[in-house]
Amino acid sequence: MIPPQDRRSLLRGLGVGLAAAAAPAWAAPKDRKLGYAIVGLGSYATKQIMPQFAQCASSRLVALVSGTPEKLERYGAEYGIPQTHRYSYADYDRIRDNPDIDIVYVILPNSMHAEYTIRAAKAGKHVMCEKPMAVSSAECEAMIAACRAANRLLMIGYRSRFEPYNRLCIKLAKDRLVGPTRIITAEHGFNAQPNQWRLDKPMSGGGSLMDIGIYSLNATRYLTGEEPILVSAVESTDRSDPRFRTVEDRIDWMFRFPSGIVANCVSSYTSPHNRYRIVGDQGWIDMEPATAYQGQTMRINRNNHTEAGPTPPPANQFVGQLDHLSECILTGRQPIVPGEEGLRDLRLIEAIYRSAREGRAISLG
Ligand code: NAD
Q1: Which residue of 5, 14, 60, 158 pairs with 337 in a disulfide if CB–CB is 3.0 to 4.6 A?
Q2: Ligand 1 centre from 343 Cα, in Å?
Q3: Residue 18 clears pLDDT 50, i.e. is over it
Q4: Domains annotated on the chain, with CATH
Q5: What gap in Å lies between CA 327 and CA 341, rounded to an integer?
Q6: Predicted local confidence at residue 365, as pLDDT
């Protein structure tokens, strides 16, 4: 049993903000909400992200970019975006002349992230870019360089870092609630629908790993606070399934971390998973779902007794993510998930693919 006073102490520190510093050149006036332009009006943008601005303290939706005039009309009307703030991909670069736009949020197919991030930086805008950051580490490096050259911030849409149960889990692992972490298991997957860009390698950069397995990968890094030193991966794809002509279905891999922690990870396009478990020498902490849009559930096992984990203060992960970048710009901080974080994941994704392809473990420098 975790006594009530211990439950309170487990939550201590969670409400603390995300570190402050002196304001540099890009800092914007603090008395206004920063304006976001959404690029790509697909499912994630319209169903998950755009409705969240109503709850944001430091961010507002001011512009839309789409190749489909009907979508610009429909969402422009719904969100009160004037014609002057609606752009096609062809006239995207004109965002440079719109001072209401502070941040461009790139929510396009993966292969388009690099181009639209670099064009945004060249137009003088800060950038939020969806995961995976790009389809190669070389593209990630170019995106980071473009934002740096323009003196603009670049953040990757790793929303779980703003989700209260995931933040609590990071704290509990760090506090060694179940002893020092020895093993992590992380599983993410779903049944992929046919005929979509995610199954077309030139558009997606890869299969389940790029799309959903990246949650397993990223979680092992934020739960350990370490970078893997060894990876060993196995791919299992039925190439006669028309969905998997160019991308992988299953890829399972093992990471070894410097402290000796081993993570076993699953990424799948043919089975549903959304879970991770941290195992220490005194028990385990389990999250299922772990990285879903909502409904995170934590269970803790200590000394052979399992119970529900403590309930962290409620917070909306999407709002937290959107406002974090605005607040970083306003106060001159670097985001907790900058471009470099996306680059690290892409380098690891490349190592996982290489290990599976070559049938051997790969040491990571
Ligand atoms: P989607 O297919 O629903 O939307 C993609 C949008 O891009 C559409 O509006 C489409 O019209 C537009 N587009 C422009 N050019 C295109 C082209 N050549 N081919 C296909 N579409 C084109 O996809 P989505 O689910 O919204 O995913 C978009 C991005 O968001 C991806 O990078 C994905 O990984 C990411 N995403 C993140 C989360 C998360 O929880 N962080 C969830 C879903 C998606």
Answers
A1: 158
A2: 20
A3: no
A4: 34-159 (3.40.50.720), 164-314 (3.30.360.10)
A5: 19
A6: 78
Tokens 């009309």 belong to which residue?
73
pLDDT for 15: 53
Shortest-distance Cα residue to atom 2 of ligand 1:
42
> Position of tokens 């610009």?
72
- Spatial distance between the Cα atoms of 7 and 175, rounded to a whole number of angstroms: 13
pLDDT, residue 20, reads 38
Mean pLDDT, residues 260-268 taken together: 98
The alpha carbon of 114 and the centre of ligand 1 are apart by a number of angstroms equal to 14
Pocket of ligand 1 (CB under 6 A): 40-45, 67, 107-110, 130-131, 157, 159, 197, 203, 211
